[in-house]
């Protein structure tokens, strides 16, 4: 249960240090003082989402009251100064409607942050990452640290959740030792066949990439969807908090969480992101769907499955040859693929590896240090480099079946059929 207000002596020193040194501060604040301390907070950035927020809130409110009373729901209504007049108008409408929504059943712990009105807008160079950070940082003082490590959950204003959402997340962290979680997701269906084909193709692309990483043995084989992630408060502050990026904030956030505390897949519930097209950010779901609707399916091609074989060979080489210096490992990388060695040389692998070996005499620690350097970002950069230098992208019908076959699955044709199989495999 949520606890009434108490003194701050139970707050861990790491949380206090983060709040005093790194947390975002004025001009942003929660609308009114919450009534108690919570075991977790659901943080929702909202930019011109007055039409979608009620559906999201209704899905949250369908969770059992015993769980709803333990979680703060915090909406961060946000825009930058250069936002369009329609976006600013919609945000002000949202702020005006939130008190009414708070009065609905299950939403007694609904609060909000005004990051949209004049003097409170986001800086021009920041975006959804900062909006998430504002909410997560402002939630930290309202979490109950007595006897537990409370949770920070990321959701989006146009996403819906299942009635067991809060219970499943709580149960997962009760059982998992990891500090972060990537929550199972499925994009909501749409009536328009072209739009449905586009979102199916995009989700298949995301899932095939994660399957490829898994087959290669990468520790970063988890989804990074902003509306489907959660972490412990301790992991949040240890990672330095949410980044301020306009796009890709989810990718970099979970990468950092994994480095400090690990990330597990959470399959006990499913969130349902919106499939709508959007041009708000330079990449991501909305942009990909919009590009395909304008230019056709060929706007999104897939990585060749052979690239994940090469990645797996590289990871195995490092794991089995830790006694080698950087030059020797680079030579072995060249035997796998000359282009791989080129990429690693440009990334400064030799010096980085030799430094890691000097600082980590233990094999397990050295492997951890390697994956801290060869992280999700460098892994993706390698895949992109190989794609640009000899292994061009191919259609999903060429890319996905070989990956499924490695998991003993075959006979599935078409984007929709392959997607459903991957959904079943990945939870």
% residues in beta strands: 5-15%
**Total domains, how many?**
2
> How helix-rich are the residues, as a percent range?
40-55%
Distance between the termini: 29 Å
What's the CATH class label of the largest domain? Answer: Alpha Beta
Number of helices: 18
Number of strands: 8
Q: Any descriptors?
A:
Spore Coat Polysaccharide Biosynthesis Protein SpsA, Chain A, 49% helix, eight-stranded mixed sheet, alpha/beta, 2 domains, 427 residues, 18 helices
Question: Would you spell out the secondary-structure blueprint of this structure?
Answer:
Elements: H1 13-21, E1 40-46, H2 53-61, H3 65-68, E2 71-78, H4 85-102, E3 110-115, H5 128-139, E4 151-154, E5 160-161, H6 165-175, E6 180-185, H7 193-216, E7 229-232, H8 233-238, H9 249-261, E8 263-272, H10 285-295, H11 306-320, H12 326-336, H13 338-346, H14 349-359, H15 363-373, H16 376-388, H17 396-406, H18 414-426
Helix pairs in contact: 7-10, 7-11, 7-17, 7-18, 11-12, 12-13, 12-14, 14-15, 17-18
Describe this protein's structure.
- The chain has 427 residues and is of the alpha/beta class.
- It has 2 domains: 8-299, Spore Coat Polysaccharide Biosynthesis Protein SpsA, Chain A (Alpha-Beta Complex); 306-388, no CATH class.
- It contains 18 helices and 8 strands.
- The chain has helices spanning 13-21, 53-61, 65-68, 85-102, 128-139, 165-175, 193-216, 233-238, 249-261, 285-295, 306-320, 326-336, 338-346, 349-359, 363-373, 376-388, 396-406, 414-426, and strands at residues 40-46, 71-78, 110-115, 151-154, 160-161, 180-185, 229-232, 263-272.
- Strands 3-2-1-4-7-6-8-5 form an 8-stranded mixed sheet, sandwiched between helices.
- Helix 4 (85-102) links the parallel strand 2 and strand 3 (110-115).
- The radius of gyration is 22 Å and the shape is globular.
- The model has no long low-confidence stretch (mean pLDDT 94).
């Amino acid at each position: 249960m949520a606890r009434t207000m108490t003194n701050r002596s139970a707050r861990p020193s790491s949380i206090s240090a983060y709040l005093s040194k790194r947390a975002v501060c004025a001009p942003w604040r929660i609308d009114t003082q919450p009534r108690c301390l919570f075991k977790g907070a659901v943080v929702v950035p909202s930019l011109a989402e007055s039409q979608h927020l009620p559906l999201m809130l209704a899905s949250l409110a369908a969770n059992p009251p015993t769980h709803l009373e333990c979680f703060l729901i915090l909406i961060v209504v946000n825009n930058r100064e250069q936002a369009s007049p329609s976006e600013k108008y919609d945000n002000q409408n949202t702020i005006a409607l939130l008190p009414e929504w708070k009065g609905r059943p299950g939403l007694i712990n609904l609060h909000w942050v005004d990051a949209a009105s004049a003097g409170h807008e986001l800086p021009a160079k920041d975006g959804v990452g900062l909006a998430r950070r504002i909410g997560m940082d402002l939630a930290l003082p309202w979490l109950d640290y007595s006897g537990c490590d409370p949770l920070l959950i990321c959701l989006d204003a146009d996403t819906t959740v299942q009635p067991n959402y809060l219970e499943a997340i709580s149960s997962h962290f009760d059982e998992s030792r990891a500090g972060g979680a990537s929550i199972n997701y499925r994009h909501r269906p749409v009536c328009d066949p072209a739009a449905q084909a586009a979102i199916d193709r995009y989700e298949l692309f995301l899932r095939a990439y994660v399957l490829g990483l898994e087959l290669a043995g990468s520790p970063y084989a988890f989804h990074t969807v902003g509306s489907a992630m959660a972490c412990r408060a301790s992991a949040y502050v240890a990672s330095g908090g949410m980044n301020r990026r306009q796009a890709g904030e989810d990718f970099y956030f979970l990468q950092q969480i994994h480095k400090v505390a690990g990330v597990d897949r959470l399959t006990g519930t499913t969130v349902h992101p919106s499939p709508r097209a959007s041009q708000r950010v330079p990449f991501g779901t909305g942009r990909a769907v919009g590009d395909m609707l304008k230019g056709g399916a060929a706007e999104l091609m897939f990585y060749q499955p052979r690239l994940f074989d090469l990645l797996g060979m590289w990871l195995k080489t490092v794991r089995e040859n830790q006694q080698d210096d950087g030059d020797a490992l680079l030579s072995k990388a060249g035997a796998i693929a000359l282009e791989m060695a080129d990429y690693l040389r440009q990334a400064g692998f030799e010096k980085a590896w030799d430094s890691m070996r000097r600082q980590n005499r233990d094999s397990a620690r050295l492997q951890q240090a390697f994956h801290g350097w060869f992280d999700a970002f460098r892994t993706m950069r390698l895949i992109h480099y190989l794609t640009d230098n000899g292994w061009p992208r191919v259609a999903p019908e060429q890319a996905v079946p070989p990956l499924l076959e490695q998991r003993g699955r075959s006979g599935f044709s078409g984007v929709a059929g392959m997607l459903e199989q991957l959904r079943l495999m990945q939870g």
